[in-house]
Amino acid sequence: MRFLLLAAALLAGSAAAQGARVPADAVDAFHAALRNKDTAGALSLLDRGLVVFEFGTVDATVEAYAFRHLPLDMDLAVAARWTLETRRVGGEGNERWVLSTYRVTGKQADGTAIDQMTLETAILRRSGGLFRIVHLHWSTSDAAFQARAQGQRSQEPAR
Amino acid sequence: MKRRAGMVAELAKRGPGGRVYAFRAAPLPAGSAYPPNEMKGWRLTVLSGKRFSAVFEVASNGESEIVVTQFDGPLSDVAVNDFFVVEEIAVERQPQ
Question: Fewer CB atoms inside 10 Å of the end CB: C or N, chain A?
């Protein structure tokens, strides 16, 4: 029984990502984890030094992002389809960047339509042979969505 | 997806073998309470501290007490003031 519990503990969440060998794969895996409501998988792709700039708000630590805004991003990822439109990658060695634009379409929980372009800057750091996201910056071309997102993200979580 | 958040306020006394599977939480936002046993079967993810991103399954809960199942191991290295989120979704485990 003890062995089975240990095995279960080791296997739980083993499908979750732990980083990626290719920087862009880490970004894509992060979005996939959000879409799959995989909180631990998403966290595993974030460097412990993460800082997030998101729609006018700042999460200065990975814990702040995980607690305050990751749930909102997960809800948006589930509610909307993110289609990658352009991507540029660069950097060298253990520090890389991935610049992406997405067409985001879908509906908010209240039925409001989403159809906008989201711009994403991701900086990744490699440690232990795997890249993880150390900085994310999102903004959007849609002023109304920006205002709504900023309003949501300026509030403490009330869940 | 329903979520409940909180901070670890006090770990339960160690059981046989020194293992801990329960803790008292400070539900967040402050002043709120968990509906008893609402979170049974939900996924708890640790959001700070040494067990950052560790996942457990809730076995039962009171207004501020949470017990996790043994499937994911004990709450080793989970500490007072660690933040967590409990989400209405099953813990995925690989078939054995």
Answer: N
Of A8, A48, A75, the CB nearest to B93: A8
**Residue with more model confidence, A87 or B92:** A87
Q: Residue B89 in contact with residue A37, Cβ under 8 Å?
A: yes
Selected residues 51-110 of chain A with any CB under 8 Å from a CB in chain B: 62-63, 66-67, 71, 74-75, 78
Cα dist from A26 to A19, A44, A116, A122, whole Å = 6, 10, 23, 10
pTM confidence score:
0.85
Structure tokens at A155: 């509030």
What is the model's pLDDT at position B37? 95
Tokens of A93: 């060695």
Overall number of domains in chain B:
1
- Copy the structure tokens of residue A70: 């990751």
Q: Taking the CA of residue B49 as centre, how many other CA atoms within 13 Å lie in the half-sphere pointing to its CB? A: 17
Full domain range(s) for residue B17: 3-87
Q: What is the CATH number of domain A19-153?
A: 3.10.450.50
Residue B17, domain CATH: 2.40.30
